[in-house]
Amino acid sequence: MRAILRHICISFVIVGATLGLTLGSASGHDLAENRLSLVLRDDTHIALTFFIDYPKALQQTLEPKRTYSEFLLMYSALPKSDFQQAIVKAHTIFSTQTIIRLSNGEPLVITAWRWPDAASTQSVLQQKVMQSIVAGNDHKHDIATEVQASATAQRKIDEITLVLPKALGSVLVISYKPKQTQLPSTATALKIKF
Questions:
Q1: What is this structure's pTM?
Q2: Residues forming a β-bridge with 111
Q3: Alpha carbon distance 119, 76 (integer Å)
Q4: If pLDDT is split at 50, 70 and 90, which confidence band does 5 have?
Q5: Residues 87, 80: contact at Cβ < 8 Å?
Q6: Quick one: angle between helices 54-62 and 68-76, nearest 10?
Q7: Do the beta carbons of residue 161 and residue 100 sit within 8 Å?
Q8: Residue 141: its pLDDT value, please?
Q9: CA–CA separation, 39 and 57 (whole Å)
Q10: Contacts for 40 with CB less than 8 Å, ≥ 6 apart
Q11: Contact yes or no for 160/108 (Cβ under 8 A)
Q12: How many Cα atoms sit within 13 Å of 77 on the Cβ side?
């Protein structure tokens, strides 16, 4: 099976090299930056919502020494079961490297991770390879992938320290505690102050 995979990957590389096509990793059309939104709810619950360049994060997590092009070619051709194992490994690494500590240094357990499924992820990688073969360096805008998780403390959260996986590179972190106001059915308008 490994020999077949190696043959497929080598074939992709040869075809790409022969046609002069490249899989670009960073261009003006790629995602501007990864983002993380941290929302404090009920003083003890933090909702985390990542918007990331998921294929690039996978490459940086699983194969940081390979080029992005090599990663795309190799992982787009993996058998489904092998790709599933790789995705589980990446998610485990990513989730263990994402750390939230309270002001007293106590770590919060981050749970309820929601990731894209392996089949759709591999399909995205395959589409990126095909797009590169057809369009070369003319990349379309990538859409950020949403990943969610949450953390709950036993006491009020007033401050945290956040550590993120290096695989994400630069991350724009947006944090806030929403202010909620109910608009009664008898009211026609609501003043909102920022």
A1: 0.77
A2: 150
A3: 10
A4: very low
A5: no
A6: 90
A7: yes
A8: 59
A9: 23
A10: 46, 157, 175, 176, 177
A11: yes
A12: 21
